[in-house]
Amino acid sequence: MKKDFGDSVSNKVYDYRVLAKMSQMELAKKVGVSKQTIFVMEKGNYVPSLLLALRIADFFEVDVNDIFTYERKDDGIDE
């Protein structure tokens, strides 16, 4: 059984897309996914693959960490 650590990834895809004055469809076409993928990613309901995250960062010419932020749940468990 897969353990749920409660970690998450937040993103600024919406912010970068709006600053670039692009629609969700335009961004989707540029990075090779559907408009729905961009929509759910912007809403925080989808964590992209590493490849897609890198593709988006490359498109906006920024570091992947500028757009995507790993948020670790601190549950007090020692590793």
Automatic annotation (TrEMBL):
Superkingdom of source: Bacteria
Family annotation (InterPro entries): Cro/C1-type_HTH, Lambda_DNA-bd_dom_sf
HTH cro/C1-type domain span: 13-67
Pfam families, A to Z: HTH_3 (PF01381)
GO molecular function ontology, one term from the record: DNA binding
This protein's UniProt keywords: DNA-binding
Protein name from the UniProt record: Putative transcriptional regulator
Taxonomic source organism: Salimicrobium halophilum
